[in-house]
Amino acid sequence: MNEQPMIRGGEILARALKEKGAEHVFTLAGGFCNPALEGFMKSQMPVINCPHEQVAGHLADGHTRITRKPAICLVGPEGFANAVPAMLEAGGERAPVIFVTGSSTLKRQGAGGFKEIDDVAIAAPLVKYSVQITEGERISEFVDRAWTAATTGYPGPVHISLPVDLMFSSFPADAGRSERPFDRSDRQVPRAWPDPAVMGAILERLSAAERPVIIAGHGVWWSGAERALETCALALKIPVFNVPYHQKLLGEESQAYMGLADFHQYHPSKEAFHQADVILMVGGRLDNQMNFGNPPFFPASAHLICINGSHEELEYNRGADTVLLSDPGAFFEALSKAGKTWKPWFELQRDRRNTWVNDWFDHIDTETRADTEAGRNMHPLQLSLDVQSHLGPQDWLVFDGGNTHFWSEIAVNMAGWKGQKLGGILHPGNYSLLGVGVSFAISAKAAHPDQNVVLISGDGAFLSGGLSIEAAFHEGLPITVVIDNNGGLDCISQQQERLFSNGAHFATDFRDIPFHTMFEGLGGHGELVERRDQLGPALTRAMQSGKTACVNVKCRGVISPIVAATSDKRDKASIE
Asked: Which fold is adopted by the domain 6-172?
């Protein structure tokens, strides 16, 4: 009689994730996780060892955003605490990252075990699903449950805690496989099709509309419906706006795309929303960015329709006049049958975008001439425009920071209107978490190794997460980091100057940090840029060096429109 082979719980975990289709693991290797790491090694699963657990989480998040497939972040108990910010960031973008904790011993739980922490309770508010596995026979089952929670409905991160005694203990190789589902490979995600009656009412209302707009959000991206969005919008001539802080759904060069649904970052959106009679919000939430669906952001006279692919999304949109449960792609297919087009209204929005872009180009030309004549550091908007001019249509742009982020948002809209195409854009999500830029840039380079990946990072943002640059060197993934170096947390200091009674700022300055020499010391390429005419040649050398490179650019601090508009009263407690 053949004896049943026995394997450790960590290997069962690794096998189950491999069976689901996971392709990449990011970790800071720790003793609690060794059996899982052995399992990943046996399964020939690529594992990237990171210098910090937060970095591992951000790399998994960035990889998931790009591929739209869950990646794994594996950490130990104390590393779990370091990974919490990455859970927050992934949750804001609805990224289905699988966070796995090798946790303290189960048999002595509550007695002060080695590195004991209630990781399940801490993670629960940040993720869709947080669970501790208490039986080795059920490891595969809970991987299946967590994966399903991460990828179905409204996608998002999940957390699995596997106690160290189960991680190291041995179980039959087929433990837990005698119950359905026998096939635990990844399944096609269930999707909802629109109720004919509700869809019919929406089409009827739309046929009577004169000025409809589409606001597209996270749900469109995670359902893979961005091309359907563009096709539908162009066919019907309905202008499209993007939810702020979210993965770009359409390239800025798309004729259907107008800009962010943000009155400060893209002022023409205010005119469009205030004049619209029907607003179709697809795959997004009526959260603080949308003023919870209320005036003055959305006028009471407009009929607000929210279309979401899951009931979780619709629960956030109770304020809408009409809600529809539907996969975004299926909705756009049905919407294409509207039988009407809105070309004059569509062209008005394009004219407004053209005026807005040209006004900004006139403004930055004036500012740059003044900078040159006065010998001042360059404007951060000019920096972002100049960087984009060196990128090809398949190259990736990442940006990170406060004002650096906001100015880059404006720059990509300007350059896109003029025809600039990019392979993709990544940046912090809904929570504006600084320090994700380097990790996201490495993720983009890993997914697209033959393309240039350039990160524009504020100096404060780089100091928050710059340690992750070691992963780029270690994994042989050369990226170019352009530092918008203004010597401090400029976004915060500008808010302080408008809030504090003495008009000063406090605790936001940095010393003059030679970021470029740090890269040289690690074996990369580094250059300091103090004038605009030095930037182009320095960028070319950095991108052609074949090394992870830093172009350290001395910029002046210029308040962005969103910070200026939302911190202009000293009695305000925040920028909301």
From this structure: Rossmann fold (3.40.50)
